[in-house]
Amino acid sequence: MNPPPKAQGRPLSGLPKESIMVGIRSVIPTTDAEAAALAVVESNQQTAFSKHQSWRMVKLVLLAALVCAVPICPSSAQDDKVSVDMMGIGGMSCAHWQSTQALRLEGTIWIYGFWTGLNYVAAASGQTETKVDTAAVVVEVKKTCAQRPSQVLASAVWTAYLDHNKR
Fold first, then answer.
1. Among 30, 23, 18, 28, which residue's Cα sits nearest to residue 8?
2. Cα–Cα dist 148/15, whole Å
3. Based on CB atoms within 10 Å of each CB, which residue in 42, 64, 72, 148 is the most buried?
4. Residue 38, pLDDT score
5. CA distance 144 to 140
């Protein structure tokens, strides 16, 4: 047999009997001070809840804006010269990425992160993620880069991602 549930919240021993509701975690205020304190607590709880709901809505709107801003097909992304403030080696050319062993390693790590980010956005927006082995990701990007070494690495990854999704 389970023991009865323990009471939670602030101790009620100091309150008069008429202000306690048995079995419920609520207190009925018997003085104006208790009523004011209870109103402040409830107000704070409602404010915290509405702030959480507001932040959740902001995140959903931002995600929707990001998804809508993504080009529908690879040709539009390449033809329209999309301008993005890219961080790291992803903003450099494919030729730069392939120029030294250290840059190849840095670029490979960047590719994994960018590809993961693309999968994250796809999953969060109800689209299909690209399931692929990590070694295959780099092979796909190298193929794309070989076709046009002067293209930006991020563009090559995006193109490889879209091409892989078509299969």
1. 23
2. 78
3. 148
4. 61
5. 6
Residue 71 DSSP code? -
Sign of the dihedral defined by the CA atoms of residues 131, 133, 139, 141, in that order: positive
In terms of Cα–Cα distance, which of 137, 127, 146, 142 is closest to 164?
137
Q: What is the pLDDT of residues 24-59, one digit of tens each?
A: 454 565 666 666 666 666 666 665 555 556 666 666
Distance CA 96, CA 99 (A): 5
Torsion angle in degrees (nearest 10) through CA of 135, 137, 141, 142: 10
Q: Which residues of the chain have pLDDT under 50?
A: 10-12, 15-24, 26, 68-80
Q: CA dist 34 to 5, 27, 38, Å? A: 26, 9, 6
The pLDDT of residue 154: 94
